[in-house]
Amino acid sequence: MEATKTTGLVNRLIAEKERPWQTFSGAANSCRRCWLQDKGVLQAYRSPAAADIPALYKDPDGYWTGFAGRMRVLLINKNKINHDQAPASVDDLLDPAVPGDLVGMAQPLFGTALTHAAAIYAARGPQQGRAFFQALKSRRYPGSGRQLGG
Questions:
Q1: Counting beta carbons within 10 angstroms of the beta carbon of residue 33, is it exposed (0 to 12), middle (13 to 18) or buried (19 or more)?
Q2: Alpha carbon distance 99, 81 (integer Å)
Q3: pTM greater than the 0.70 cutoff
Q4: Is the separation of the CB atoms in 103 and 143 below 8 Å?
Q5: Which of 35, 55, 62, 107 shows the smallest number of beta carbons within 10 Å?
Q6: Which element (helix H / strand E) includes 131?
Q7: DSSP state string for 7-48
């Protein structure tokens, strides 16, 4: 579903760049917003309603204002993993103590999974970000008999 929502809108905005029809676009997926900005589809706007939002949460050029948080959580099946084995962070998903056939993650191609992957790359750098996802991909995707991302 996500591929037809945000991605569909992004593709339409790019295709209709010379004939804009939309005056506002709100999106939780900052990756797609970056692509639109890079393609020259967006126009900067500083909303008077955002005057009280700290500068830390605003683009200095006026292309975006952050006004909502996103939370990423790890779901743990207590019937499959003991409390002392439960991962406390995404890095723990690579720990051999966590059975690989119990590790799963949405493919980071759309939505908040894509934004989460981009944040990991931004925080760790391209080499460490890629190494993390390659290691995670080598774990088994639950219930499907195939590897994550495969």
A1: buried
A2: 8
A3: no
A4: no
A5: 55
A6: helix 126-137
A7: HHHHHHHHHTTTS---S----S-HHHHHHHHHTT-------G
Is the pLDDT confidence value at 78 over 70?
A: yes
d(CA 59, CA 44): 9
Tokens standing for 119? 């944040």
Q: Where do we find the tokens 């944040």?
A: 119
Helix (H, G, I), strand (E, B) or coil at 53: coil
Q: Which two tokens stand for residue 149?
A: 């991302």
Residue 105 DSSP SS3: coil
Q: Which residues contact 89 (CB under 8 A, 6 or more apart)?
A: 74
End-to-end distance of the chain based on CA atoms, in angstroms?
Answer: 19
Q: Could you report the per-residue pLDDT of 18-59, keeping only the tens digit for each? A: 877 666 656 656 667 777 888 888 888 898 999 999 999 999
**Which residues 6+ apart lie within 8 Å of 129 measured at CB?**
117, 120, 121, 122, 123
Closest CA to 135 of 102, 90, 97: 90
Mean pLDDT of the chain, nearest integer: 78
**Which residues fall within 8 angstroms of residue 112, CB to CB, at 6 or more apart?**
28, 29, 70, 72
